[in-house]
């Protein structure tokens, strides 16, 4: 009797304790939390679970976009998390640290991973500031203007191969072509040659190899797993539910990447400059450990492939949907060159409309659509004068920022003219200081120059060689999910090859 009484009391205490905890959490998060002053949906302010559900369903970017439309520039998207679309973020959050202000650290609790593969090394993107500065200085040699000029023949080789393969695929001009795959084949082949000193042969074989398929699957898996980070129990459950063959695939992936890096580093000489020849020429073998070379190779292969292919896919879609803009671009490209061989790192940047189209593509369909989270330092900080408590997470979410009327006129429409100063008065008040698709400050994109040249070269060669028409099944192509990067379905187009001058 006494035993069951104790049990009953324990059960009642547990229920009362749980209800009290839940009530305390609700009241604290809504009214007393230091972020309580920021607007946002109440449910999201109380629990992180709604945001986790949005992230695992690939809808977080669109949900956050809707929140910014309703609540303004700075929105509380979970109890301890702010999304901002304010241009001030580029100085206050991502900029250089000045007098203890700005330049917040990367959020390694919920997003960036230290020692991600257990070899004791961390890639520069996730490193602390000191190690990041050391690694980045070494890699800078491989991303300078001079390096790009040395890499030019390699980029030319793969873009020529792309055009050749597109000609084969379009043959009589009636077949449908999934242009997303072709852009991916090209950027992966190029980046593999720069990172491993040997090609992947995707364009040759016109197919993804298992290693590249693993990368795509891995990006999605990590994005879903990251949604649970910071919640150890949920994170463990999620890991336990991971597909059984995941470990095997991961090991295959690492072996593939690392063996190629090792093979490349064993070579004294290479017949063309790749990242390592430029790094080693400047620094010798000092400065980076072999495990650091391994993890950074993985970084280069993900950061430098999907991103550029995504921009090219999105831009191709918007150009096809806006025939007047497509005509203007095609006229500029075909009127500027009498042969594609004339397209170089010197001549291509002179094409103003091509540059404006790339910028507008990066705005309307930013390859990095999500926010890249930073942690407010213990002493606190601010966004545009609004105080932020130490330990809070904050990020500039690219897609909502670029689709907000607060920053851009007619934000959902494709108008490259907004990037041509004085061309169209409708865009005179666009906040260009909000636009940083490659991020800003000391942790911005290291591959920006390379990315611009690659995107210019690929798009210019494709539009020089083909007329492109969007097929009906791809009319609503942009309506897809985001797992850190866009989950792009095929983009079906019809290509009509043009007669080339000899
Ligand atoms: C349209 C194409 C691209 C876009 C939009 C883009 C965007 C970005 C962004 C937003 C970041 C900052 C990440 C953060 O804050 O965590 C970044 C970092 C980085 N990107 Fe890119 N990227 C592109 C192409 C490339 C290419 C072609 C490479 C060449 C390998 C590259 C290499 C890197 C590297 C190494 C970092 C880390 C830099 C550091 O931590 O210092 N990216 N990129």
Automatic annotation (TrEMBL):
InterPro entries: Cyt_P450, Cyt_P450_CS, Cyt_P450_E_grp-I, Cyt_P450_sf, Cytochrome_P450_monoxygenase. The chain crosses the membrane at residues 6-32. Gene3D superfamilies: Cytochrome P450. GO terms for cellular component: membrane. GO terms for biological process: toxin biosynthetic process. Heme binds at residue 445. It is found in: Membrane. GO terms for molecular function: heme binding; iron ion binding; monooxygenase activity; oxidoreductase activity, acting on paired donors, with incorporation or reduction of molecular oxygen. It is a single-pass membrane protein. This is RadP cytochrome P450 epoxidase. Coiled coil: none annotated. Belongs to the cytochrome P450 family. The lineage of its organism: Eukaryota, Fungi, Dikarya, Ascomycota, Pezizomycotina. Its main location: membrane.
